[in-house]
Amino acid sequence: MTNEAKGVTREGWRLLFATLKLQQRALIMGACVGLAWTLGKVAVPQLTKLAIDRGIEKNGSLLLWTMLILAAAVIAGVFAGWRRYIAFRESRLTETMLRERIFAQIQGLHVGYHDKAQTGQLMSRSSSDLQQVQGFVVNIPIFVSQITMVIGVVVILFFSDPILAAVSLFPLPFINISARSFSHKIHPAVMAVQQEQAQLANIVEESVSGIRVVKGFGAEAVQQGKLNIEADDIRRESMRAARIRSRFLPAIDLLPSLGLVAVLGLGGHRVINGDMSLGGLVAFNTYLTMLIWPMRNIGMTVAFAQRAASALLRVNEILSEVPAIADAVEPRKLPQAGLAQPVGAVSFDNVVFGYDIGHADITVLNGLSLTIAPGESVAIVGATGSGKSTITRLLLRFYDPQSGSITLDGVDLRDLTLSDLRRAVGVVFEDTLLFNDTVSANIAFAKPEINQEIVIRAAKLAGAHEFIMQLPQQYDTVLGERGFSLSGGQRQRIAIARAIVADSRVLVLDDATSAVDPTKEHEIRDALATVMRGRTTLVIAHRPATIELADRAVLLDNGVIAAVGTHHELLATNEKYREVLAAWSSPQVVE
Where is the ABC transporter domain (predicted)? Predict the structure, then answer.
């Protein structure tokens, strides 16, 4: 094993111990319960010996010894159940705490991280990797009790017959050596299996979420081929791990059996010679048999621990990620609205921004300066790639500009908490996402506690009420995943209603009418005008009818503002503006 691999292994074990330390009191309690179980189990062979030697050979009371053996068995059974309960309780608690932490971290990480992260990888680390940790933690109380039983049995055997004990237990050190070798060899194999499982999860997630594209292009066989490759990789890596286990587990079975052979050979002659009682031989043999499963389970627990340590390494890659976008150390508050102080002023001051694509930054905005007065509506118009949607992302602080600043009501966005900022800025994205929930819950997403009257009013303003009332359960109708049971226009109307409920001081319509049939655009045009009235609004649009809703239009070209004016002014005076609108309204020709 290389030094780097050893370092990774040590880091995995460090993370595992740090995780267990959070529950050390409960795990110690489980170990104590396991100790009581051990006492019950260890007492049975000793009582059996006395029953044979005194109850059978010396005509003693068999009933007494039978009842004592039964009592010891009951004690072992009760504490075994209690130990199992504590083990599962603590393992599920560990899994729950880690799942909540990783989910909170995934939600808290900046959008730039999610641009590069694979969804399947995140899902795998939030599910199967955590199950590996849970599978190990559930074995800890059992493992500790079995260790104490091994120690107790070994002590009893040496007190009973030191020579016979030394002969029968001679293979045990070799089991420990095998376990250490197994631990080092299984680690890279387990890591490889978990990595391949994450890759397969990513293929499945992409295929399911993009099922319409897959079916639309008849590409089922292509995706099946990708999955077959990943499935074969999992099988190959799993078989590599299985070969390592197959070399280790036989030693666990064989080595204790060698001790049994020695006991039967040497101990049998001692009984015949009268140097050992028959009950003593039976007890000695029973004790040695009791070591087989614990010793085997120790090896299995080492494997579980190695998997858990590997899984925690993968989980920690997410937990240790530092969000590039975070709350200010000493955040400021936005000014409150008042008659003398309208709110919603937005200012972009010499903003420069580019996306990190691969190893190069692609500049999108190059010194953008724009001021929007409270209550004013501004349409941002530009060709594809001109940076229209980037303005929305910067205003929501999905990203921070490389230079320049953006302020809301005079406060730099970087001086606000993210929650305050995103409550102040409502947005309707071009790519509408609805959740697998009721229509009412989707509309009230930002404020789930609001009453139904506000939900219905928002739906009416967005022009969604009429088609909602035609759904099977109306507002209680559960939409399918991503809302694909509705048309694109219907989804966007519900998204607009959701933004209305949010009641933000700034509203961003990021091409919000793009999926609405142009012949029906007028149905929500008046609703949008009502929502925009008196509210600062950024309208990212290319349809003239939508642009006309804004007080003024801004033409974006090569990351800077090329022209400013009303829609009709720019249409009459600016050739570039007319070209952009014509390009959007004309069918695209692919050569």
Answer: 346-583
